[in-house]
Amino acid sequence: MYPPKFEVHIASSLKDALEKVEEGYIPLAGGQSLIPMMKLRLISPGRLVYVGTLAELRRVEEGGSFINIGAAVTHGEIENSKLIREVCPLLSETASEIGDLQVRNMGTIGGSIAHADPAADYHAALLALDARVVVARSEGTRELPYSEFVNGPYATSLEHGELVYSVKIPKAQGGYAYVKFTKIHTDFAIAGVAVLLEATDDLKIRHIRIGVTGVQEAPFRATWLEETLQDAKLTEETINKALSNLPIRPISDARADEQLRLKVFRYAVKKAVNKALSRLKR
Ligand code: FAD
Known about the structure:
Shape: globular
Bound molecules: flavin-adenine dinucleotide
CATH class of the largest domain: Alpha Beta
Structural class: alpha+beta
Largest sheet: 5 strands, antiparallel
Number of strands: 14
Helix content: 25-40%
Low-confidence stretches: none
């Protein structure tokens, strides 16, 4: 189906884009979520402002203990950037799991997090990485933790007149892994689990963060699991025990029912933790 007629303004600068957004134009980046929704006539915005090539949103900058990734940087660039792979390999691994080559070539990190599909892959990694989102508006920028940026399924704390400017990620040491299970290849996650950890030589967990997507109505940090595993010696038994009584309510949908999701979630956690451990530099 074709979308109803719409006009596209190609922003010449961030200032121009912000003025248009203030006037009610809807931002268009890679179009990988917005255009399908328009084709399905779930939304019919009459005026779009294209932000996908704005230099201000295309930067990847390393600064002190952070790396800043512009909103219009594509999934493919995050997957393949030498710098991001070096200082934030969890995010590159996550980007490599998104959709197919075309989606990764067009789709952007800013578009993905602004769209906030509850099963989008970046949620898991950005929660585990303790990322922050930099939001631009005409008066300047504001910054907030990713956990406060996503409010629920397809809901963010972006306000009228605002654009995602960049994602700011603390450089992290340690083992990492993003493990995703799908019903069919290139689909959204039934369960996606991102793990970042540090452990002693005898596998005692010193620090662990676990971000989850696709399992519940909204992405979450598995803090209760983190607390159980903190200071524990990681064995098959410890992890099985930690996963035995979970305070979560998996959703049921066309991809998987609640029971299957729970099973897949447990498996994804085990696999991600073990993969992260195997990547620890010793
Ligand atoms: P757009 O589609 O251009 O925009 C999406 C939304 O974000 C719109 O509301 C738009 O107004 C808003 N927006 C865009 N940029 C900004 C900004 N800078 N500031 C504020 N608002 C902004 N995603 C996954 O995570 N995992 C998958 O496995 C996956 N598979 C897919 C498979 C297919 C076939 C397709 C078509 C998509 C898939 N996606 C998947 C979604 C994909 O990641 C999209 O790229 C992403 O959700 C949207 O990014 P975009 O740049 O294309 O944004």
